[in-house]
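In response to the reviewer comment on reproducibility (Comment 2.3), we provide here a single inverse folding case reported in full, input and output, so that an independent group could reproduce the run without further information from us. The structure tokens appear first.
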């Protein structure tokens, strides 16, 4: 790079600062324009590429984000945060092995990077490597005992091992840190359901719906719980409500033959609920005629 005079250096910094301010306000298009100007003024600024990549990432343009992260790493191979962000972008594109490699590199450069441990654990968990995931989530919790997401994610990993009691303990901890953690209520409810404690499962789904009355996932899971109690009328209502809110997850599970963390017992209930939904819809058409 050629010499940069004092005025140019200040302008590059101002452009970078403007971009950061725009990004904080959610104006990612303006942020990208400012970061691009900063890069034009100082092509060797790894932070400018990193921040522009983050803005592209926030807009959902993962490939462009990765291109900027690559350039940032080329300028500064020891910039640990870039590896963590690039890993997240790779994960979003389904390239989980590359994601894990990047999270691992971020940890190597910064062994106290809580987010990198959490993200690598999440990637491991979704590959079915639950024990490795638990190790990473545990390390994240050790570094930050108030990290609710790490407890939540570790709970899901324990659930993947069918260790429902430990899963519930982790969801309890996540909810103690964040009492409005809707996903933690839903997942704790699912684990109570696996233990046949349907009343507690219903209480969790109800709490999730109290926080967000339009939570389709809570309706769908509560419908399964109602079916387990033999309350098929409410089960069908909840399944229909989930469908009305745009969540066809239950139908997709059946179509794709995926069981995820649902037991065979829960899958049978899902099928029954969907049949009830279709019968209810047919009955409504018949009455309308």
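Designed residues, in position order:
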């Amino acid at each position: 790079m050629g010499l940069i005079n004092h005025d140019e250096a200040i302008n590059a910094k101002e452009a970078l600062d403007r971009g950061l301010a725009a990004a904080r306000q959610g104006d990612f298009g303006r942020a990208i324009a400012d970061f691009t100007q900063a890069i034009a003024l100082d092509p060797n600024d790894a932070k400018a590429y990193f921040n522009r990549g983050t803005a592209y990432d926030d807009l959902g343009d993962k490939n462009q984000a990765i291109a900027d992260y690559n350039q940032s790493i080329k300028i500064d191979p020891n910039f640990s945060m870039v590896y963590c962000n690039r890993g997240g972008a790779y994960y979003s594109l389904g390239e989980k092995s590359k994601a894990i490699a990047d999270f691992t590199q971020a940890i190597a450069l910064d062994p106290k990077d809580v987010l990198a441990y959490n993200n690598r654990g999440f990637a491991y968990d979704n590959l079915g490597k639950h024990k490795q995931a638990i190790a990473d989530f545990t390390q994240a919790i050790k570094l930050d005992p108030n990290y609710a997401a790490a407890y939540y994610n570790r709970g899901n990993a324990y659930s993947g091992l069918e260790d429902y009691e430990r899963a519930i303990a982790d969801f309890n901890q996540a909810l103690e840190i964040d009492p409005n953690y809707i996903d933690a209520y839903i997942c704790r409810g699912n684990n109570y359901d696996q233990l046949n404690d349907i009343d507690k499962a219903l209480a969790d789904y109800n709490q999730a719906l109290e926080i967000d009355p339009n939570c389709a996932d809570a309706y769908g899971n509560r419908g399964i719980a109602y079916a387990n109690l033999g309350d098929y009328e409410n089960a069908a209502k909840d399944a229909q409500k989930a469908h009305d809110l745009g969540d066809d997850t239950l139908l997709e599970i059946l179509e794709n033959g995926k069981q995820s963390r649902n037991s065979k017992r829960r899958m049978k209930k899902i099928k029954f609920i969907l049949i009830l939904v279709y019968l209810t819809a047919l009955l409504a058409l018949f009455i309308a005629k």
